[in-house]
């Protein structure tokens, strides 16, 4: 889908009472100087107010983690940020962790691929880096959804935590008569992508664009893969 077409659909949806926009994780820890930097992440601050103007339902999500957290490399003395934690490694019994082997094993048995990327500590509850950017029109939000709030569960999607638990967002949107969703924010290859994919699975029409997000691009190639997936998600149901 070309940019002109994406913007044309965006403008049409703004006039529709059954359309909503989800702004994902616009927090300083995902900006270039943040704890989990996303190149160009701060550029979206100037774009989002115009992007969301006119929608009758606006949702902001906020990554909000306690310490320790199961997705933080700091929770595992032998691990470094961006390493992959696997169920097999946990079951070996050799991994040291701030959580019990049973707790980590139980979580990984429910995740995609039975793995977890270990991230730098980020969006920790009560820190400036974890706050939503105050320059955004937060007063216009109908819902601010905090995710990743449990120590033992990571959460990329706004609809489901990584263990499959529902956040309640789908029910909230459907109660407002929403059938169409624009997804924007950070980061395109993780929380934006997972949110858009789950929105599609939940029966919503989806509009997501590389113009309205930025990418971690880890592992290498995840940006390109996400953009390719965006095009599929934007196609008719």
Structure, described:
This protein has 237 residues and is an alpha/beta fold. The protein folds into 2 domains: 3-66 and 122-234, Isochorismatase-like (Rossmann fold, 3-Layer(aba) Sandwich), CATH 3.40.50.850; 73-117, no CATH class. Helices cover 26% and strands 17% of the residues. The protein is built from 7 helices and 7 strands. The protein has helices at 3-14, 48-52, 87-91, 101-108, 169-175, 191-201, 222-234, and strands at 19-24, 57-63, 84-86, 115-117, 143-147, 180-186, 205-214. Strands 5-2-1-6-7 form a 5-stranded parallel sheet, with helices on both faces. α6 runs parallel beside α7. The mean pLDDT is 96.
Core attributes:
2 domains; 26% helix; Rossmann fold; alpha/beta; 7 helices; globular
Gist?
The chain is α/β, with parallel strands linked by helices and 237 residues long. 26% of the residues lie in helices and 17% in strands. The protein has two domains: 3-66 and 122-234, Rossmann fold; 73-117, no CATH class.
Gyration radius over CA: 18 Å
Overall form: globular
Going by helix content, strand content and strand pairing, the class is alpha/beta
CATH class type of the largest domain: Alpha Beta
Strand content: 15-25%
Q: What strand order characterises the main sheet?
A: 5-2-1-6-7
For the termini, the CA-CA separation is 15 Å
Helix content: 25-40%
Q: How many beta-strand segments? A: 7
**In DSSP terms, counting alpha (H) and pi (I) runs of 4 or more, how many helices?**
7
Count of the separate structural domains:
2
Mean pLDDT: 96
Please provide the ordered H/E string of secondary-structure elements.
HEHEEHHEEHEHEH
Largest sheet: 5 strands, parallel
Poorly predicted parts = none
- CATH topology of the largest domain: the name is Rossmann fold
What do we call the CATH homologous superfamily of the largest domain? Isochorismatase-like
Secondary-structure arrangement, i.e. CATH architecture of the largest domain: 3-Layer(aba) Sandwich
């Amino acid at each position: 889908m070309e940019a002109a077409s994406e913007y044309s659909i965006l403008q049409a949806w703004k006039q529709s009472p059954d359309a909503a926009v989800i702004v994902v994780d616009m927090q300083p820890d995902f900006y270039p100087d943040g704890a989990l930097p996303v190149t160009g992440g701060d550029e979206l601050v100037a774009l989002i107010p115009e992007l969301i103007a006119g929608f009758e339902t606006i949702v902001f999500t906020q990554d909000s983690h306690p310490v320790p957290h199961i997705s933080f490399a700091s929770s595992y003395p032998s691990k470094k940020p961006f390493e992959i934690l696997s169920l097999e490694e946990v079951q070996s019994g050799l991994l040291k962790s701030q959580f019990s082997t049973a707790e980590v094993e139980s979580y990984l048995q429910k995740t995609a691929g039975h793995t977890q990327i270990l991230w730098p500590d980020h969006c920790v509850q009560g820190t400036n880096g974890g706050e939503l950017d105050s320059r955004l029109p937060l007063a216009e939000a109908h819902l601010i959804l905090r995710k990743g709030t449990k120590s033992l569960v990571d959460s990329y999607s706004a609809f489901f935590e990584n263990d499959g638990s529902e956040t309640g967002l789908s029910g909230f949107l459907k109660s407002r008569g929403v059938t169409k969703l624009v997804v924007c924010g950070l980061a395109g290859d993780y929380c934006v992508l997972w949110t858009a994919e789950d929105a599609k699975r939940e029966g919503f029409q989806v509009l997501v664009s590389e113009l309205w997000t930025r990418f971690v691009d880890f592992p290498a190639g995840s940006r390109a893969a996400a953009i390719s997936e965006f095009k599929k998600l934007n196609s008719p149901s």
